[in-house]
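Project standup — Tuesday

K.O.: blocked on the structure for the chain from last sprint. Re-posting the sequence here as requested.
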Amino acid sequence: MALVDELEPHDAEGYFSRGRAHYDKRDYDHATADCTKAIELDPKHAEAYCIRGAAYYCKLEWQHAIADYSRAIEILPQCASYYTYRGEVYRDTDRPDLALADFTAVIELNPLDEGAYYYRGRLYDDQGEYDLAIADYSKAIELNPDEADYCSRADAYLHKRDYDHAIADCTKAIELDAGYILAGYGSRARAYEEQREYDLAIADYTTLIELHSKNGFVSGNLYASRGLAYYNYGDCNLAIADYSKAIELNPKAGWLHSCLGLAYANLGDYDHAIADFSTAIPLDRHGAHYIYYDRGNTYINKGELDLAIADYSKAIELDPLAGFAYDGRGNAYSRQGEHNLLSFQ
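H.V.: unblocked you, prediction finished:
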């Protein structure tokens, strides 16, 4: 490679070789310049178009990348990898139909290309075509069972609410530990939650927290997920501990304060619950009507009916179709003995 850099090329192949060397060193400007010179000397140099297209891709010059890959395909239409590269650009620029066509072309040219099945499966997944996605993921797994992404197929199963298959795939991913172990524990925990096996979900979230801690960082959302599992499992004290840790890491997340408020309310600690709901309301505008409702319920439990009615009314103001808020307000009016002002006034 050093000689390629030092000597001035004299033909297309020389410029291409130097351009590829620049590309391998991530010097994309010089790579495109040398590949351009190679193409000028040999307009049918498909690999020069391909490497220049790859350099354009790395420079985020999508249209130039597509044009070069397309020209490479015109020159060598039987080269499956060119369709793969162009398909990736189409995928990254949100043109799924064109990407699907390219990955399908790869499969037709090379039915043993596991990557094409995987990428096409991801596209089907994004489009909500979960059966087609699972079929493609399954083929990719069949072609390379020891390094395949079982977690993607697991997530497709999760979307179909096929939790047993999702758990089986996640477990396989964890056993193989081929780069998907974190995703495996995360998806399996969600599947366990959907099956209301909260103790198993808690175990997986705990393992995830330990693994992330070894890498020096644990997301607040991970503590929040375990906190919700504890909450659903009926252990509100541990839920509070996890929600509090999540809030330390992300204090502006209104939904976390709301979750913490619910946990306190379930323990009968209404003052702490009201304080957390009050913190959550200005932080979560989109979910504020739910939080007013939850705070209203807490005021009901404290016997502060006027404050409860005010919160239910605020929830209704924010979302006039919130039937639960009308029910709550009707219940508060009823408790006040104001039977003439029931739910749907």
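K.O.: great, moving the ticket to review. Residues 339-344 have pLDDT under 50 and may be disordered. Residues 286-345 form a domain with the Serine Threonine Protein Phosphatase 5, Tetratricopeptide repeat fold (CATH 1.25.40.10).
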